[in-house]
Write a structure and sequence with these properties.
By secondary structure, the chain is mainly α. The protein contains 11 helices and no strands. 70% of the residues lie in helices and 0% in strands.
Length: 272
């Protein structure tokens, strides 16, 4: 994979913001030069959405008169965090194995700003994926039942979750030996997608599975975004208020970031 040239900073070193912006720009250019990254994620999302909407959707009945497609799409958008992050981990691993990060370490730049730039680029890619998936969701019948502000807040919650989870995928990419290994290691996130409220209500799962499904971050993000987009928590069959789920989502995202960001910075500082 080709890499964009990085302009060497002055002797005084580049600022934190300049370094982060420069690496974010470089990664975004890399995405555009590798269109498979942009289109494969979109195609994958469309295929899964069509499958759940038309293959499984007819067998699922929701409470409170909510259509399954209106329940599914917000959860599916949250799941995009994991599917998009898998390719991000492979990209980080490839940058590391090609020696890009070794070259950056030789420059007088803040090292943590490098991975902040990468996370900004990955979150931007997620925003693109969410936009396209949201359009496809509208075409297959999804309709929000809240104000435009609440719907926008729901999308912002998803992006906040994507920012937090990006640190997990960056760490996987940094510790993996190569891109293939990173892709395999990301498989550990699959249970968080399917054992959650993304596709079906937690109460429909076996009793022994419900405690994990109900209390993991993907479910919290699904509940928060779904409540915002569909007119409240009661509308989507949740016991707590919309505000409760939004606050809990913020707490989860802050906790993941506070734990994973320092681990990424420490790992980035080590040579392979």
């Amino acid at each position: 994979m080709t890499t964009a040239a990085i302009t060497p900073p002055s002797r005084a070193g580049a600022s934190y913001a300049t370094t982060a912006a420069g690496l974010a720009k470089r990664t975004l250019l890399q995405f555009f030069r590798t269109p498979q990254i942009l289109f494969m994620g979109t195609i994958q999302g469309a295929l899964f959405l069509f499958m759940f909407r038309y293959v499984f959707g007819g067998a699922i009945r929701m409470d409170n008169g909510l259509k399954y497609v209106d329940f599914l799409v917000p959860g599916f958008l949250v799941s995009s965090i994991l599917w998009t992050g898998m390719s991000a981990a492979a990209g980080v691993a490839e940058d590391a194995t090609t020696g890009l990060y070794d070259r950056i370490r030789s420059l007088p730049v803040p090292r943590s700003a490098v991975i902040v730039g990468r996370s900004l680029a990955d979150t931007t890619l997620l925003a693109w994926s969410i936009l396209i998936t949201g359009i496809i969701g509208w075409l297959v019948g999804f309709r929000p039942h809240s104000s435009a502000g609440s719907v926008l807040a729901g999308f912002l919650v998803i992006l906040m979750g994507g920012w937090a989870f990006s640190w997990i995928f960056i760490f996987i990419g940094l510790v993996a030996k190569n891109a293939q290994a990173a892709q395999g290691m990301t498989m550990i996130t699959i249970p968080f997608s399917f054992i959650s409220s993304a596709n079906v209500p937690v109460k429909t799962m076996p009793g022994w599975m419900q405690p994990f499904a109900a209390n993991q971050p993907i479910t919290v993000l699904c509940n928060a975004s779904r409540s915002l987009m569909q007119g409240g928590a009661q509308r989507v069959g949740l016991a707590h208020s919309t505000g409760y789920w939004v606050v809990l989502a913020v707490v989860w995202c802050a906790g993941i970031t506070a734990l994973a960001l320092p681990l990424c910075a420490r790992r980035f500082g080590r040579r392979r």
